[in-house]
Amino acid sequence: MFAQILPHSAPINDTSGGGRNRELLDMTNKQDMFDERYRRVLKRHRQLSRGYVTRLGKNGVIDHYPIGHLRDAFSLKALLLPIGILFFLKACMVTVLGQDAYSAQVALLREGSLLEQFGAFFLQMDPITWPMAQMLGAVIG
User: Which of 37, 76, 105, 129 is in the most buried spot, having the most CB atoms within 10 Å?
Assistant: First the structure.
């Protein structure tokens, strides 16, 4: 017969009194624990390969700590994506409204409250938005 592979959360219904299913589940759990430990070791190795600092702990054990790099905590892609989306949405609004109507709406925002003036600053026409709007207009037709 074929061995029955059980998911981790499934109850074990071993009616034969044998432990074959329990052994399979035990081996699977041990393999999962090993895989997790292996992933952590590889992650630590990658971190240490970028540079590390050696420190002597209170208990006398020498430990290596990875040097924190700015590129690990901050991604350039995470900064450029919202800016690119803002330019694309501005270009869509210019394409739909037209350049004159869009400029009139931004002028209305400039006369408003402090928050509206802040929005008008970011929504004003710039050298990137107008060419994008022209390309979108050609694509949309």
Answer: 129
